[in-house]
């Protein structure tokens, strides 16, 4: 089985709880997660002053190898992301390749095609894991995280 590759781009003001939960759950489940900075710097400060070090910058990624793009928007990051031309080009490419494209804000704004209300970000991340890696990875990771609130997914 090919290991899915997910890109999580971060901009200043990203929503930390969403980004960290997605990164953690998907990596635990065996997904290759690349955290990409939209700035030239690898260090990106979130909406609540938590700084994450990204794996690489967005301009160093090859779109052809991406299976999913997850965007952990915060209110501040939304305005930055919607005007970021390289990310917009990547969104169009990923969308036309029939790759997965998910937005994960808790906002009533829609950038492109899909808008996912996070509700419970842990359950959302586990649902994505199940989609990418199957029921076994989903069940094992859910048990490891004691995510009983995600029953019935």
Helix content: 25-40%
**Helix and strand composition category:** alpha/beta
Could you tell me the strand content as a percent range? 15-25%
Strand ordering within the main sheet: 5-2-1-6-7
Number of helices: 5
Query: Rough shape?
Result: globular
Number of strands: 7
Unreliable parts: 103-118
- The whole-angstrom Rg is 15 Å
Summed over residues and divided by their number, the pLDDT gives a mean of 78
Distance between the termini: 23 Å
Outline the biggest β-sheet.
5 strands, parallel
User: What is the chains' assembly state?
Assistant: single chain
What order do the SSEs take from the amino end to the carboxyl end, as H and E? Answer: EHEEEEEHHEHH
Overview of the structural elements:
The protein is α/β, with parallel strands linked by helices and 153 residues long. The protein contains 5 helices and 7 strands; from the N terminus they run E-H-E-E-E-E-E-H-H-E-H-H. It has helices at 16-28, 75-81, 85-96, 121-133, 135-144, and strands at residues 5-10, 32-37, 43-45, 51-53, 56-57, 68-71, 100-103. Strand 1, helix 1 and strand 2 (32-37) form a beta-alpha-beta unit. It starts with a strand and ends in a 9-residue tail after the last helix.
Defining key terms:
153 residues; alpha/beta; five-stranded parallel β-sheet; 7 strands; 36% helix; 18% strand
Question: What is the element layout, followed by pairings?
Answer:
Layout: E1 5-10, H1 16-28, E2 32-37, E3 43-45, E4 51-53, E5 56-57, E6 68-71, H2 75-81, H3 85-96, E7 100-103, H4 121-133, H5 135-144
Parallel strand pairs: 1-2, 1-6, 2-5, 6-7
Antiparallel strand pairs: 3-4
């Amino acid at each position: 089985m090919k290991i899915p590759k997910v890109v999580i781009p971060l901009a200043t003001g990203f929503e930390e709880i969403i980004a960290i939960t997605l990164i953690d759950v998907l990596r635990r489940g065996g997904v290759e997660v690349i955290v990409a900075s939209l700035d030239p710097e690898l260090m990106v400060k979130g909406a609540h002053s938590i700084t994450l070090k990204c794996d690489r910058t967005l301009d160093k990624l090859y779109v052809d190898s991406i299976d999913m793009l997850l965007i952990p928007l915060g209110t501040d990051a939304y305005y930055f992301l919607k005007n970021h031309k390289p990310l917009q080009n990547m969104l169009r490419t990923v969308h036309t390749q029939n790759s997965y494209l998910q937005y994960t804000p808790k906002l009533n704004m829609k950038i492109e095609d899909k808008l996912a209300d996070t509700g419970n970000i842990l359950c959302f991340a586990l649902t994505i894991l199940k989609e990418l890696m199957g029921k076994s990875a989903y069940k094992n990771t859910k048990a490891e995280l004691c995510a009983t609130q995600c029953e019935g997914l």
